[in-house]
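Question (not urgent): is this output format expected?
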Amino acid sequence: MSCDAERVTAYVDDALAPAERAEMEVHLTQCLECRVQADEERALRARLRDLPLPEPPPQLEARVRRSLRPRPGAARWLLPLAAGLVALVAWGRGATPFVAWELSRDHDHCFGQRRLPAKVWSSDPSRISEWFERQGTTVPVIPDVAGGLELVGARYCTLVDRTVAHLYYTSADKHLSLYLVPGPVRPTSREMRPRGNFVRLMQVGGATVGLVSEEEESVEAFERALSTTVAWEAGPAPPFAR
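Got this back:
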């Protein structure tokens, strides 16, 4: 089985079916990263259980009961307000600046680790694509090298509201993340620099691709390579700039 942070959490919480639990136990004997996550979550839950129970302030029950009493006309404006807030949050998460900020944060998180947290290591785009295909994600034609950065590996990363395919490109002193972003993304800006990184979102072969790097030149090199991919889709393999 492949790594799944949510299933590890469900395992720690004893929320998996017996067959899934047995499968996870086998996986934990083979995967250090998931085993570390399980140990950390168990330790966190133990610390929470050891916390002293807070004493409720005097008259708490009376104040709660008063606050729950219906007020004339309150429902007429509270329900539309709640619906509007839900719609606003849903709209904001699909806006390009929000998505760009999430991608930039994840880029910093992955490349900020001592070792990239890839689940598949390869400089062969076809092998990376096949790995994602087995997980149910279709990958458009991607370069193995562009702007001096070489493909080294990939994994899935979880953002606030979606899970993205994350491909890692590196050189001696540069990094670039190539993301496949599912779900709605509404373009509102071309040039974005959330958290100090250069971010570009574009459509490639019907998929939304996000490019993130500390260097604008690296993002532009990959944009040119991916644009060439689209132009050559019906013909032979594109001659990516190396």
